[in-house]
C-alpha cells in the first residue's frame, strides 16, 4: 500500500496532465460539431474493425462444423441423385423413355470422418469413424469431393481402415478421359502428391494436363471419378510403355471427410466373376 501511494505521488504530475488532456478533448468534442463528427467517425471505424476481427475469429473456429455439415449434405445429395436415377430407370418400360441407368452406376454413399491418416510411410493407411453398423464393408471404394481416396480394407463395429492410393498395395485401374486408354495406377512410395501410371503403349498420344479418371473396369469404383492429371511423362528408347507421373486430385495431407461407395450390385457381380474364375 505504501509503495502504491509513493508511486501515485511520484507520477502525480503525469496523471494530472493526462486527466486535463482528456477533459479538454471531451470539451472540444462536446462543443464543436466538426470535431465531434470526426471523433464519432473514427470511433465507428475502430469498433467496426474490432467487430470484423471478432467475426473472423468466430468464423475460423466454426469451419470444422461447417465442413462436417457440408460433407453430410453432399452425401445426402449423392444418395438422392442415385435413388432418382434408379427410379427413372424402373419406369422406362411404362413410358417408353430412353433413360437407362447402367447397373454398375447404382450406388449409395456413406459419409465418414477421417480420424487417422498417414502420408509419410511406405504403406499408408486411413482410419474412418464408420463400420459394420453403418453398412461399411471391405472392398468398398472411398472418395471425397476431389476424387478417389482408396479402398476399404478392414471393418469393425464402429471403424474401418482404408488402403489409400498412397500405398503400393493398391493398384487402381484408371484411364485417360480424352482417349479412353486404361492402365494401372501405383504409388511409388515417394511424394504424396504423385503416383505413376503404367502399361500405356508408346503409340498412345499422351499430353501434360490430361485428365485421369477411374476406368470402371472393377466393381469398386464407377467409371469417371476424378483421379488426377498428367504432370509429366517419359519414354525410354528400350521401353514399349510410357512412364507417366500423375498429380493426384486429392490432397492426402488435408483430407477430413470422405464418402464410402456402397455399390448396390456388388454381390451379384462379384459372385459371377468368382464363378467364371472357377
Secondary-structure map:
Elements (H helix, E strand, L loop, with lengths): L1 H9 L1 H20 L1 H29 L1 H28 L1 H4 L11 E11 L8 E3 L12 E3 L4 E8 L4 E5 L7 E5 L5 E5 L7 E4 L13 E4 L11 E9 L8 E6 L8 E7 L2 H12 L1
Antiparallel strand pairs: 1-2, 1-12, 2-5, 3-4, 3-12, 4-5, 6-7, 6-9, 7-8, 8-11, 9-10, 10-11
List unreliable stretches of 5+ residues.
none
How many β-strand runs?
12
What is the mean pLDDT?
81
CATH architecture of the domain at 172-248: Beta Barrel
Radius of gyration: 31 Å
Summarize the structure in words:
This protein is an alpha+beta fold and 278 residues long. It is 37% helix and 25% strand. Helix 2 crosses helix 3 (33-61). The radius of gyration is 31 Å and the shape is elongated. The mean pLDDT is 81.
Keywords, separated by commas or semicolons:
25% strand, six-stranded antiparallel β-barrel, 37% helix, alpha+beta, Thrombin, subunit H, six-stranded antiparallel barrel, 278 residues
Short précis:
This protein is an alpha+beta fold and 278 residues long.
